[in-house]
Amino acid sequence: MSSLSLTLRDSSTMLRRNLLHARRYPSLTLNLLLTPVVLLLLFVYIFGDVMSAGMGGGDRAAYIAYVVPGILLMTIGGTVVGTAVSVSNDMTEGIIARFRTMAIHRGSVLIGHVIGSVLQSIASVVLVGAVAVAIGFRSTDATVLEWLAAFGLMALVALALTWIAVGMGMISPNAEAASNNALPLIVLPLISSAFVPVDSMPGWFQPIAEYQPFTPAIETLRGLLLGTEIGHNGWLAVAWCLGLTVLGYFWSKAAFNRDPK
């Protein structure tokens, strides 16, 4: 078999392994999925009228349309926290040491984690999106091309955050540390434009919200789903995703190839 065939075979085996783990131990995924659903319901039904009034006097439906894109990307950030924990478990429980002695492609272990995490992230986004539609979210102004671009953006965000989460899992001494290290992937959307516009924040805080990866990604997704202008946010979102993917890939690869202590 060629090197490419071996890589594909071993990567598919590792992918099946990770998907089986997710199916047999769904509690972590469900707990991480519960957070964006609760936030969605909280901000729509508890704070929706107040928030929409403060953003220009719109109704609750207008705020649902505003908040859903941020919740969808927060869902991805929460899902990949489970990836960091899973990778940390593999590194600390000895299975990676066993894989190192086997005749398998070394990169297939990481590839299996990454592809499995991206698939779980997309599935989580679909479930949260279904909840959003059930409570009134509509995307009537978006074209088919914009819908495809929105799904492509979410897949790209999932890929970028997954590689970062894999790196965090690699350097963590245990699952608890991995979960803590990956916490910024959940916190950053909270201090972005997910819930309120950046220009409504205090002046000293606006740069923190604006110059981070989630804000341009959220603004791009919001524009695609609602059929509005995205301006320069699209290029910024893609640049952030590509940069984080490259950073996470080389970080994870270096940590994985490091000789175990």
Explain this structure to me?
The chain is mainly alpha-helical and 261 residues long. Helix content is 77%, strand content 0%. The chain has helices at 3-24, 27-46, 48-54, 60-92, 95-100, 107-134, 144-171, 175-181, 184-190, 206-210, 214-226, 233-257. Helix 4 packs antiparallel against helix 9. It starts with a helix and ends with a helix.
Helix fraction, binned, reads over 70%
Q: Which spans of ≥5 residues are poorly predicted at pLDDT below 50?
A: none
Number of strands: 0
What does the average pLDDT come to? Answer: 86
Strand/helix succession: HHHHHHHHHHHH
Radius of gyration, in Å, reads 19 Å
Shape summary: elongated
Share of residues in strands: under 5%
How many DSSP H or I helices?
Answer: 12
Q: Structural class of the secondary structure composition?
A: mainly alpha
Short note summarizing the structure:
This protein is mainly alpha-helical.
Question: Which terms summarize this structure?
Answer:
single chain; 261 residues; mainly alpha; 12 helices; elongated
